[in-house]
């Protein structure tokens, strides 16, 4: 016990950012409050992982795996790989208790130049495109029911996506507590939607609809297997687990990060793996591999087959899931910009905190992305037609 306490004290001395005041103001001025408890920490991890991937990625995994059985194994293995990575990040998070996630770890371990490059790649490429495409996916699922026989208009898609980004940026600028409440609510909504899918799958199994789960049928291949295709299947599965490291971007705002960071990871990753595997089991109780491969949005097709007049629940669930994904991405990426500015790798104005609200307001605004020409209409439509959200880039 004494050794652990001594190690923790030394870590706090070496990295004072991890032991800031809970009141939001320390001796040096205003600081970010420690307002994120265990439940909200789990909400950030689960909410960032579960975007639109599980609703569309099963098609890509199955297509490249070549059989239902191998596809389910890939979902389990990618979950285990994610768990290993998350455990490594849990150790890094308590050893280097700074906000900023990957950037902070790369900078402290490999030096300032490596951290600078990692930061600017995220600032210029990763997060602006990430948030834009998640928001476009949200607007597509909201507007598509109003245009059942054609694509929604490009102007409408972009306008709704912009409104989504602006609204959630305002929420994050206003209050950390509001932002975490939004994240908690939409994470609960995602889990309820996936729980509905799993329950319907259990009902189907109870009715004897488990033809594709029997071993002789589950491993019946519908294409010639190859190492390259299996690797692509793993890539598709990994896409759906992306976001598992986002809690490390807000380490300094966690209540007792030495306990809650590992606990949140231990709870969230097994939960997501369980949900993903059994959601895929549910899908194949209602759809054959051929039907699943023909679908551009697997969960929507699943709902149409089993929910009847209530099938509208699935596209709304996907829309709400992506809306929560935008919030989680804004919340965490702003802390990356804040950490970079604090270290001198971005303009110092981005390290400023609102005096009354204790939010990194100036770091949130660049998360909307630098000015750039809109993507050509065909590229957006091709993404939507393929069911690819691009959420975890």
TrEMBL record:
Its main location: membrane. It is found in: Cell membrane. Residues 1-29, 372-393 are annotated as: Disordered. Keywords: Amino-acid transport, Cell membrane, Membrane, Transmembrane, Transmembrane helix, Transport. Residues 1-15 have a biased composition (Basic and acidic residues). GO terms for molecular function: L-amino acid transmembrane transporter activity; neutral L-amino acid transmembrane transporter activity. The keyword Transmembrane applies. It is a multi-pass membrane protein. GO terms for cellular component: plasma membrane. The keyword GTP-binding does not apply. The chain crosses the membrane at residues 36-56, 68-89, 109-127, 155-173, 185-206, 226-244, 265-286, 306-326. PANTHER family: AMINO ACID TRANSPORTER, LARGE NEUTRAL AMINO ACIDS TRANSPORTER SMALL SUBUNIT 2. Belongs to the amino acid-polyamine-organocation (APC) superfamily. L-type amino acid transporter (LAT) (TC 2.A.3.8) family. This is Solute carrier family 7 member 8.
